[in-house]
Amino acid sequence: MRAATALIALTLVPITAASAEIARARYLMGTVCEIAVDGDAKQIDAAFAEAARIERMLSTWRDDSELVRVNRGQAASPELRGLLDSVIAWRERTGGAFEPQVRPLIDAWRTRADGALPSHDAIEGALASIRSGRAAFEEGGFGKGYALDRMLSVVDAPRAMINFGGQIAVRGDYRVAIADPEQRDVATVNVTLRDASLSTSSGSEKSFVVNGRRFTHIIDPRTGEALPPRGSVSVIARDALTADVLSTALYVMGPDEGLRWANAHGVAALFITSSHQIVRSNDFPKD
User: What is the pLDDT of residues 214-267, one digit of tens each?
Assistant: First the structure.
């Protein structure tokens, strides 16, 4: 199993493949997706087909996805409606640190382009749109997690690992490492994943500078401010959607607030701060 593709999102996966394990990679949802399973290659084909279906449903980088049509006013299918209801619920659980309808702020800060510093009025206008409940959904904080859950559900194998742009979901046991947020080829913390998913959020991968200030693509939807680089947050959860959502939410909260929230809610989270301190929540494994 190649480790290189796992470096995309701050996770290094030094896996020794079993003799029966086969692996393939494909470019999906704007990143590399790599799948390894024990057994039949048809399982991998089925997982890639499911990922392609989810991309057609969720991608906001294409004009023909179902989510784009929903953002334009079309009714959602039962599957998408259920997913959107689920992620909206995380907004309440995280006190607004996770916001699936964050698109107006993304547009204001131009984080999908070269970045910009919006005016106070532009930020307030974006926040007002979000608070109205009528703003567009943006899949960036939950799309890969949902895709991973769906992909793993169609794989009928005792051991499987899916690495989707650095977020990982496994069936069985896999040893992985979390990389330094500023040196993605340097493993910092090793951990064993068992029937779980690991998601890491960091601002070091995509940032921009305006008037001498560096901002990341991650925006605090409570204040409307794009956040500065401040290390990384990794979350382990039983399902990949939860891991995806919470790594984003805890990064927004920051190490102090995020650690308190994780401990209060039994979340396995690891913070690597901008000063390279490693801080684990009570539930994060210590191997």
Answer: 999 999 999 999 999 999 999 999 999 999 999 999 999 999 999 999 999 999
pLDDT tens, residue by residue, 71-111: 999 999 999 999 999 999 999 999 999 999 999 999 999 99
Helices (H) then strands (E): counts for the chain: 8, 15
Whole-number Å distance between alpha carbons of 13 and 255: 25
- Structure confidence at residue 186 (pLDDT): 82
- Hey, what long-range contacts does 105-111 have (CB within 8 A, 24 or more apart)? 105/130, 105/219, 105/221, 105/224, 106/138, 106/140, 106/219, 108/224, 109/215, 109/219, 109/226, 111/206, 111/208, 111/217, 111/219, 111/226
Ramachandran region of residue 141, left (φ > 0), alpha (ψ -120 to 50) or beta?
Answer: alpha
**Separation of alpha carbons 156 and 278, rounded Å:** 36
Predicted confidence (pLDDT) at residue 8 exceeds the cutoff of 50:
no
Helices (H), the chain: 41-58, 66-71, 78-93, 103-109, 120-131, 143-153, 240-253, 255-264
What does pTM read for this prediction? 0.91
Nearest Cα neighbor of 167 from 248, 280, 274 is: 248
CA angle 140–28–239, rounded 5-degree value: 55
Residues 15 and 170: their CA atoms lie apart, in Å, by 12
Q: What is the torsion angle, in degrees rounded to the nearest 10, for the CA atoms of residue 213, residue 165, residue 104 and residue 203? A: -20
Tokens of residue 38, six digits:
């024990």
Strands 167-171 and 160-164, by their bridges, are antiparallel
Q: What is the separation, in whole angstroms, between the first and last Cα of the chain?
A: 22
Strand partners, 164: 33, 167
